[in-house]
Specification:
With about 120 residues, the protein is mainly alpha-helical. The chain contains four helices and no strands. It has one domain: Four Helix Bundle (Hemerythrin (Met), subunit A) (Up-down Bundle). Helices cover about 80% and strands about 0% of the residues. The longest helix is centred in the C-terminal third of the chain and has 29 residues, at about 85-115. It comes from Rufibacter glacialis.
Length: about 120
């Protein structure tokens, strides 16, 4: 596995964990505020590894935009849950899945390009 594959695999794993934490939070678990914040591990990947090694690639710009949208959506769903709009929060998980899938496709595309 080369460095790019390792970097992108790290991002995939962080993304899976992100989705899991969002799902847990809107099904009554305690939200992991640190993980689901602009300073969380996925955000850090984009500002460090991604920002240093891949920022010059067009896929990276789209990936970063999608992640910001994913983060905002996650926080909106958690807010909905906290305000008692539980079904609306549950329904919003489809949007999380859609954004995460788009991001995963871009990660794969970038990986193919770099290998």
């Amino acid at each position: 596995m080369n460095a790019a594959q390792s970097d992108l695999q790290q991002l995939r794993i962080k993304l899976i964990l992100f989705k899991s934490k969002v799902r847990s939070a809107v099904y009554g678990g305690t939200p992991d505020e640190a993980f689901l914040s602009p300073g969380g591990p996925v955000s850090q990947w984009f500002s460090t590894i991604g920002g240093v090694r891949y920022a010059h690639l067009p896929e990276f710009t789209t990936m970063a935009r999608l992640y910001k949208e994913l983060l905002a959506t996650a926080n909106r769903l958690i807010s909905l849950y906290r305000s008692g709009k539980i079904e609306e929060a549950h329904d919003g998980l489809q949007e999380i899945d859609k954004l995460a899938e788009q991001l995963t496709r871009l990660i794969s595309s970038l990986e193919v390009r770099l290998v």
